[in-house]
Structures are given as C-alpha cells and as structure tokens.
Amino acid sequence: MTSAGILGTGTALPEKVITNFDLEKLVDTSDQWITDRTGIKERRQAAPGETTSSLSVRAAHQALNMAGLKPQDLDLIICSTISPDMPLPSTAALIQRDLGARACCAFDLAAACSGFLFGMTVADTFIKTGKAKYVLVIGAELLSRFLDYRDRATCVIFGDGVAAGVMGPVDPPSGILAEEMHTEGEYAEHLFIPAGGTAKPASCQTVQGGEHYIKMRGNELFK
Description:
- By secondary structure, the chain is an alpha/beta fold.
- It has eight helices and nine strands.
- Strand 4, helix 4 (about 90-100) and strand 5 form a beta-alpha-beta unit.
- The mean pLDDT is about 95.
C-alpha cells in the first residue's frame, strides 16, 4: 500500500497583532496572568477584507510551491474550519475556485482544534486507497470574528491564522505511520457557540444575548 506524506507546507497570518498588553486595556487581565496560564504572548486579528478562504489561498500557494505542484495537480482539497466564509458553499469550494483547481473535489471538515489532524487522516486514507494522489489539507480559523472582547475567558486565547499542507505518495519508511481519532461528545458544551445553527437559529435575541460568540468553560475544559 502507498504511504502518504507531507510534500509541502505553507502559512498565512493577518498583519494585525494583538498583544497581552492590548487585552489588558479591554478586560480584567494581565500579561502575567495570560502567560502563566496559556503561554500566549500575542495573537493575530484579520483585517475587515480578509476571509478564511483568502488567507487559505495564500497558504495553499506556499505549500504547492514547496511541493513543486500546480493547483491543477490536486485531486482533493480538505478545509478544516469552524469559521467558514459562509454556511454555503463550503470554504473549500471557494478555495478551489480562487486557486483555479478546477478538476478536484473539495469539502469542509469541522473538528475545531483537532481539525488539521482529522484532515490529514482523511487525506491519508484517500491517498493510500488510490482515490487521490495529491491532497491539499488546510487548517484555517478566523476566530476573532466569533469573540466577545469583553469575555476574558476566550478573547485572550483565540486568534486568526491558516496552515496548509500538500500531501501525496512517498516511499516507505517515510510518511504517516499511524493515526488514532477519538471524540468525546459529552463535553460538547465546554467549548461551543450556542446560536447560529439549527438548534438555535440566529435572531435579534441571540445576537443581543451574545450567543453568536464562542463560550468556554475553561476550568472544566482544562481538566
């Protein structure tokens, strides 16, 4: 069976940097408190005109260049994101369009923090079974669009950025050796966005209540 490995990588970050000292001016926190608990010193914030797909395309071009491939060589694009450009179509479809990768399949995968690893596992399966030769895997989040900057539990942690990897066949012993995927859905409400889906459609009331923002039960999630 063919082994699958990473042939090229790329990244894209917004220019705007938000430091811990910037957040000290917004919420009751401090650089020391954030650093001690998270190790984070700064995070990026997308500009108004930047989108999940536009940053993804930048990262994808880097990864393709490193791999020595063209967009037309791709058989599959997997975009892992919980902050898509819009609910429909998939962000992967927008990336495919803007890359000019006309002949390939493209779909989104939603697994939050684990998304890129889930995407790599799916790509590995496609490559090993011969369903695809070259797969672009993207982990992309613009979580600043879902943050309440009055909530110190979340605004100090999340930011914006994209990583991309082109995967393809490699000669053993190179390549992915093994994967294990696992989900614990019983803890879903430790980190979630209450409104905007079918359970609680967006409305004036949900927006007024801030239910379109990320909510996190930090102590429980840490445990």
